[in-house]
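Reopening this ticket.

The earlier resolution said the output was attached, but the attachment link was broken on my side. Pasting everything inline this time so it's all in one place.
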Amino acid sequence: MGRFVARIIHDPKTVGQRVLAHEDEVTQNQLWALADKYAPNRLEGKRVDVTAEDLDRLIHESAEGKDLPGLVWNQYMKSVYVSGHNSVAEAKADGWIIARDIYPDLPVRTAEEWAKEMYST
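Inline output:
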C-alpha cells in the first residue's frame, strides 16, 4: 500500500479526490477458504455465520434497546456483507478514483499470496 500512497499524494490528478487503493478484492467466504487451505484447523470454531435476516433482527433489537454501538456495528455489517457497499464497483459508481486503474505498473499481491505468507508463520 505504501507505494500507492506515495504516488497518490504526489499526483496532481488525485488532489482533492477520493482514491481507493487496494490489492485483491475477495469475499469473506473466499478469505475463510484460504485460511482453511493454508492453516487447516487453526481457525476452527472462530467463524460465525450470520444471515441477512439475522442482521435485520439485530438491527431492530439494537434500535429498540437504544444500544447505539450495537446498532452501528450491525448496520455496518449489513452494509458491507449484504449490500456490498465495500466493493470496488461501488466505489467507482460513487466517483472514486481507483489507484490500480491509474497506476497499473505498481505490483499487487493476491489474497492467496497474502494468505500463504500470513499463515506460514
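Reporter confirms the inline version is readable. The helical segments are 2-9, 28-38, 52-64, 68-81, 88-93, 99-102, 111-118. Residues 1-25+87-121 form one domain.
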